[in-house]
Amino acid sequence: MKLKRHIGIGIVCLLFPLAAMANGDDDYQPTSDVNQYEGYTLLWQDEFDRNGKPDERWDYERGFVRNNELQWYQPDNARVRDGVLVIEGRREVVENPRYEEGSNDWRRARRQAEYTSSSLTTRRSFHFKYGRVEVRAKIPTASGAWPAIWLLGNRWAWPSCGEIDMMEYYIAKGVPSILANACWAGERRFTPVWDSVVAPLSHFTEKDADWAAKFHVWRMDWDEDFIRLYLDEELLNTIDLSQTTNRGGDGKGMNPFSNDVEDFGMYILLNLALGENGGTPDDSRFPLEYLIDYVRVYARN
204 by DSSP, 3-state: which? Predict the structure, then answer.
């Protein structure tokens, strides 16, 4: 089955704040079974081998955040268990302290959330420029689930900051799909240009009927010229960075993926959204678990 490639315009309703601190935890030691690659040096990792809460390098998004999604993000839904990070989607009522009757802002118009989840980010602790990222994970594929592995730049407002989606799983035009994307700023404010490949889930399950029950490795290779996105060594998307210069916004004329801006880098997000592009939640399948075995970032030598 052919993978579908789309380059076009989309809209997402969130501004991301400027900022991010560089540098990881210098005391964090690699484990012995980490893959080593010629031309790369391990820069940052989390093997999730300490039960309990994720370590302090991870920060959390909170509340209603983006895309009219159903979940209320909270730290309590993330924990490390038996060597994996578990992000749990729950049916759970949470009152919205920002509720305002009649508000035009969807984040304030909802009196409560009926689902909770977590979104973890390295925005405050770690960003990097160029290299390789590997994430081994098992994703929930029940209706309503929208798990992602993605990155954002630490300069300029979205989408001028750039976005790389190593993995998104959701319902695309009625078909359960895995996406490999990047976006940057179009001419109109807050309007992105997308370079996206949409792979129907059936592309993978036809080769392995138990695909959804297994862990898989998502990888990004990023240099000055290209971003390449892989799933289990299959190349899904190659993004030509000669085409990704921002056309508008506060980063107009800048390339969020290839530039000489001092301290520029991208940070990592791991989240399980619910509803919206994920479809109507199947309440009989809750709680949902999104499992991440490791996150590894390699610098190019």
Answer: helix
Residue 49's nearest CA partner among 94, 85, 22 is: 85
- Dihedral of the CA atoms 132, 137, 141, 142 (nearest 10)? -140
- Cβ atoms 79, 271 nearer than 8 A: no
The pTM assigned to this predicted structure is: 0.90
Which segments of the chain does DSSP mark as H helices, in order? Answer: 106-109, 202-205
Q: For position 224, which CATH number holds?
A: 2.60.120.200
Q: How far is CA 111 from CA 106, 163, 169, in A?
A: 10, 31, 28
Distance CA 165, CA 163 (A): 7
The domain tally of the chain equals 1
The pair of three-digit structure tokens given for residue 20, joined into one six-digit string: 């991010």
| DSSP structure class, residue 96 | -
Burial class (CB in 10 A: 0-12, 13-18, 19+), 94: middle
**Which pLDDT tens digit goes with each residue over 218-265?**
999 999 999 999 999 999 999 999 999 999 999 999 999 999 999 999
Its domain, for residue 49, covers 4-300
